[in-house]
Structure formats: C-alpha cells, structure tokens
Amino acid sequence: MDDFRKYLAEKALVKRNITTRINHIESWLKWLKIEVENSTYKDLMNYIGHLQETGKSVNQINKRLQAISHYYEFKNLPNIALTTRIKGGIQKANSKPFTIEELDLIFETYQSPNKNYFAKSDKIILGLLIYQGLEMGDFMSLELKDLDLKKGKIYVPKRGNRNERILKLESHQIILLHDFIEKNRTKESDKFLNPQSSDYNQLHYQFKKLSRSVKKSLHENLNLKLDKLSQLRQSRIVHWVKSEGLRQAQYKAGFRRVLSAERYRKADLTDLKEQLKKHHPI
C-alpha cells in the first residue's frame, strides 16, 4: 500500500484521510477475495449490499466508494466506482409491510405494459420477488438447471454476501415458468433469463421499468403505495420471521447471519429503515 499512500499524498490529502482511504481499500480487498483486476461492477453492488447489511450509513458507504474509485485510478483499471454513489439518506417508510393477502393481490392484478421481450418475463420476476424474496443480483446468477418444476423448487446460487438456498415455488408460478421456458425463453444461453441476465445494464433497465409499472398498478388497482421493489422482499421476510422463525427466515433470505433476519422481527417497515437505503434508482 506504500505506492497507493504516495499516490494519495500527491492529491494533497491530509494524513488522516489517507489512512482512512487505505483502511477502506484493505477492507474492500479482504471482502473481494479475488484479484482486484478481475472485479466487476456486480462485485461492487454486492459489496454495497454487504455494507448496508452491516449497518453502514449512506455517508460511510460513499466514503468507501470514493476510496475504491481512487484505488482503481491508481491501478489504472476500469473505474467501476467512478460514478457510483448512494443516493439520499435513510428512507423512512410510513407504511407497514404488505400483508400476505396484499402480496397475492399485487401478483394477481399485475399485467406488464411492455410489448417487447420484457413482457414475457416481467411477471416471472415479480413472482420471484414476492414469493421467494429474490433480489436483482439473484437473476444474474440463475440458470435454467436451477429450476426443478417437477418438484416445484428453485435453487438460488450463492453470490456475494448471500448464501445459497432451495425455495418452494407456488403452484401458479410453476405454470408461468413452464410456459416461459417452453415458449418465450431464448435458447442461446444457460441463463434462466436471457439475454438480459447476461448484461447487468439491461437487467437493471428492466427492473427500473418494472418498478414504475408495479407502482402504477398498485396505485390504480389496489390503492397501495410501493416505494421500491425491495419492499416486496422485505415484506416476505417479515412474514417468514413471524410464521417460521428467525433461523428459517435467515436461510430463505440467504442471510449469512441471523442478526440480519432479526431486524425483520417487528412487523413495521419503520424498523427496517436500514434495509431501505437507496443505492439504485429502482
């Protein structure tokens, strides 16, 4: 780190800030567990999720992203953190988690307004968010072999700070998944969602559009308010904690630590404000 320290000193940073940035980089490299030259934007997003899960504030995360950006410039690598910053502070939700009945209605009433390829997979994604509590990163990893429709189960691979797990599919999901696989899914890749799951930007674009259309659907059809798609996962975890206990909720959500599930013990999203920090405009 001596060369990096000199690089920071040349930028006229004070000694205390240089030491802090070096500590941030050492933490990033320790978490990364691969050569920094092989790191990707997806790794950075997973790291942000890890920092949020450990309770870091928006300001603390942005300082780490700034340090990472300096380090990638120093290493003359593609700067994956150059324009990546967490937006806003803690979002204080003023609504309770969606009930089981509301989650069912959200899924049942939603119809994708898209006319392109996304229309074939929007409801598939929505169902996996609502019933299995998946996150966008999970869709980047899912392959066709991870779905066992005969047994009605889905295997969610390990990624970043999330553990692998096997989750039950709802019967109405199985029908949609079967039709999607047989009639709509392109066959050029082993990825389940294809081609967007092979391209972060394309999948992120689909999630942004899905978020907008789901918000509109909830407002117009159910008189419900959705702040962001992650509320669907959070609501499902709340119900897992209530009905199945912390350990099972921890497993189903893919959390590494039971403490992460314990934050969902109180069925009020105001107690989940740490889970609602914005790092994507979704």
Description:
It is globular and about 60 Å long. It folds into two domains: 73 residues, Tyrosine recombinase, N-terminal domain (DNA polymerase, domain 1); 177 residues, hpI Integrase, Chain A (Orthogonal Bundle), CATH 1.10.443.10. With 282 residues, it is mainly α. The chain has twelve helices and three strands. The C terminus is likely disordered. α6 packs antiparallel against α8. It has a three-stranded antiparallel beta sheet.
Beta percentage is under 5%
Rounded Rg: 20 Å
Trace the largest sheet across and list its strands.
1-2-3
| Total number of distinct structural domains | 2
Largest sheet descriptor: 3 strands, antiparallel
Q: Low-confidence stretches at least 5 residues in length (pLDDT < 50)? A: 89-95, 268-282
What is the CATH superfamily of the largest domain? Intergrase catalytic core
CATH class of the largest domain reads Mainly Alpha
The count of β-strands is 3
Q: How many helix segments?
A: 12
What separation lies between the terminal Cα atoms?
36 Å
Briefly characterize the structure.
With 282 residues, the protein is mainly alpha-helical.
Helix-strand blueprint:
Elements: H1 2-10, H2 15-32, H3 41-53, H4 58-74, H5 100-109, H6 118-131, H7 136-141, E1 147-148, E2 153-156, E3 165-168, H8 171-184, H9 200-222, H10 230-244, H11 246-253, H12 258-262
Antiparallel strand pairs: 1-2, 2-3
Helix pairs in contact: 1-2, 2-4, 6-8, 10-11
